[in-house]
Design a protein that fits this description.
The structure holds 2 protein chains of 2 kinds.
Chain A (H helix, E strand, L loop, with lengths): L2 E5 L5 H5 L12 E4 L10 E7 L7 H10 E7 L1 H5 L16 H4 L4 E3 L6 H8 L10 H4 L61 H12 L7 E3 L6 E3 L5 H4 L4 H5 L20 H6 L7 H8 L4 H15 L6 H23 L2 H15 L7 E2 L2 E2 L22 E4 L3 E5 L5 E6 L3
Parallel strand pairs in A: 1-2, 1-3, 3-4, 4-5
Antiparallel strand pairs in A: 6-7, 8-9, 10-11, 11-12
Chain B lengths: L4 H10 L8 E6 L2 H11 L8 E6 L7 H9 L4 E6 L10 H18 L7 E5 L5 H22 L7
Parallel strand pairs in B: 1-2, 1-3, 3-4
The chains are: A alpha/beta, B alpha/beta.
Chain lengths: 412, 155
């Protein structure tokens, strides 16, 4: 059997994860192709596509399909559009694989699970997956909310995030390996259990908000009431609907293509409009070679400007993560599955998962080791301050509601 | 569906623009549909682009139905329910209002006018409330089209 793994555009997180395939398959069977535009045509049994896709990639994808027995879309980007799909809000054309070539096999998730890919390649029966809520230790009552919260500081580990007024898309998601929900990070639905997850979650959350004041006004005609256009508690409590409900599925959601003017760069367009408290997770999800440094860089810039002090313990853990990132990079270059697994396990121990869910402003969200004092490095809710933040490598501006209005990231 | 010559004439006589063909209105079985019936009995006229969909309660209508209508060729979607506090079930009209308010914000975030979806109320005994709501839908749709074009080109 010969398996070829293609990396198209975007971050290399899923591509790097496929190093672990060497544990289940013969090493000589797997070939990694980082530049799909430059490789020699030959017969393929299984072609695995990772990274986000654009309509310009269609030609080479058709070529790959014509010479392979099976094509597998691996990760959120080629299946539902993924994080980069958010740039469609600004008129980009990130497209899922199924719209470019007919019926590929799909594995959702950001990061998608390597065990599933391995069993799919070997034609084993897929593991039956439950819904996320069934495996979540929190329990939902679906009662109407009094208020929607943007940050949550609570010891409560039994009440559903949605009941606490903290938007979580777990209702529409399947169980996964990354489990952001275990690190006080609500689910954003990278592994949908239904079609059109974002739009259904929007309807669900709209219902939950049923008790929150909505503005009405008298109709000009007929003397009855109608929904008013003015800002009210409903719109104020959801500053970024596209980024939170459609984080991984904007291109496949059936919504019209965004008409917000583009800033030119897809990475920049992806970040503009997102809420400050979501940025650490988004940067973590973006993966790639320097995702840990970038995430910590962002967090530290904001902390420094707003005088959020961090303890020595936090600094030690963050430095440890930065060191691990360097080692991970070496393991990726050598394509060494054992070393890769060893280092990712260490990263998961501190950062929660490969999406860095445990990292936040002012500390960590959940205890890292049992034998240390959590109070020394726990995070607290922080104030959202508008303004311009600069540190040379990373510059960003926030508006009054804490949304990114401009961002610039230089490669180190 | 294209409008007939006669329908177009009526349509453009009643409003300033003629770039729309279908407006889907979800009307609840109680007050919404009731007021439309009353308007019909009184032989009141309204824009021929209106396509009324009868639902049990506007609480049944969510983003899924609205996007399905827009994706299948509607130029605008509106819900007409009972008056505030007078839902014949529990509070379906208010729940629908919350969803539609969120949809409006979503359209704004995507760079569109928020006037393609709206929610109204009407009274079953007064036909003019339904016809007034229809007039308001067309007026808002026309101003949205003049500002930034129809949503149909992108759906």
């Amino acid at each position: 059997m010969n398996v070829k793994i293609f990396q198209f555009n975007g971050c290399h997180k899923c591509f790097n994860e496929t190093i672990l395939l060497q544990k289940d398959l013969k090493k000589s069977d797997i070939e990694y192709i980082e530049n799909p535009y430059d490789w020699e045509l030959e017969e393929i049994n299984v072609a695995v596509i990772t990274g986000y896709l654009l309509p310009t990639d269609q030609e080479v994808l058709k070529k790959i399909q014509s010479i392979s027995d099976r094509v597998i879309a691996y990760g959120s980007c080629p299946t539902t559009g993924g994080l980069y799909g958010l740039a469609n809000q600004h008129g980009h054309e990130v497209t899922p694989l199924r719209n470019l070539i007919g019926n590929p096999q799909e594995l959702h998730g950001c990061l998608a699970e390597i065990e599933e890919l391995s069993s799919l390649i070997q034609n084993n029966d897929p593991k039956a997956l439950k819904n996320l809520c069934q495996v979540c230790k929190r329990r939902s009552t679906c009662e109407f909310l009094e208020k929607v919260h943007r940050q949550l500081e609570t010891e409560d580990e039994e009440t559903c995030f949605n009941d606490l007024g903290f938007l979580c898309s777990g209702y529409i998601a399947k169980e996964c390996k990354e489990r952001c929900i275990d690190y006080k990070t609500p689910c954003r639905g990278c592994k949908p259990s239904i079609t059109r997850p974002g739009i259904r979650m929007l309807g669900m959350f709209g219902t939950l908000m049923g008790n929150i004041e909505v503005a009405t006004e008298a109709s000009k005609y007929g003397a009855t009431d109608k929904l008013a256009d003015e800002e009210d508690d409903v719109t104020d409590s959801l500053p970024d609907i596209v980024g939170n409900f459609f984080r991984f599925s904007l291109p496949t959601s059936g919504l019209p293509k965004g008409r917000i003017p583009s800033q030119g760069n897809i990475l920049k367009d992806l970040f503009i409009g997102r809420m400050i408290e979501e940025i650490p997770l988004i940067l973590g999800l973006l993966g790639g070679a320097h995702s840990i440094t970038k995430t910590l860089n962002f967090i530290e810039t904001y902390e420094k400007e707003n005088n959020i002090t961090i303890t020595e313990k936090i600094r030690i853990y963050r430095d440890e993560l930065k060191e691990l990132e360097g080692e991970l990079q070496k393991a990726v270059e050598r394509k060494d599955p054992l070393k890769y697994e060893e280092i990712t396990t260490k990263i998961r121990e501190i950062a929660g998962n490969m999406n860095l869910s445990n990292l936040f402003f002012g500390g960590f969200k959940t205890p890292i080791r049992d034998d240390d004092e959590f109070d020394e490095y726990r995070t607290h809710t922080f104030e959202i301050v508008e303004g311009s933040y600069k540190n040379g490598v990373l510059n960003f501006d926030l508006d009054t509601e804490g949304r990114i209005i401009d961002i610039e990231m230089k490669e180190v | 569906m294209k409008l007939s010559h006669y329908q177009k004439e009526v349509s453009s006589a009643m409003s300033e623009c003629d770039e729309y063909e279908n407006v889907v209105v979800f009307m609840c079985n109680e007050c919404g549909q009731g007021s439309a019936n009353t308007a019909g009995v009184a032989r009141m006229s309204y824009d021929p682009a209106m396509r009324i969909v009868r639902v049990q309660c506007t609480g049944q209508v969510g983003p899924i139905q609205i996007m399905d209508a827009l994706n299948s060729g509607a130029d605008a979607v509106a819900c007409v329910g009972c008056c505030l506090g007078a839902c014949h079930f529990f509070n379906g009209n208010v729940i629908s209002m919350h969803r539609i308010k969120i949809m409006k914000k979503l359209f704004k975030e995507l760079g569109y006018s928020d006037q393609f979806v709206n929610q109204y109320t009407s009274r079953a005994a007064e036909g003019e409330t339904a016809v007034g709501d229809f007039d308001d839908i067309i007026e808002r749709l026309c101003s949205a089209i003049q500002e930034g074009g129809t949503i149909q080109n992108e759906c």
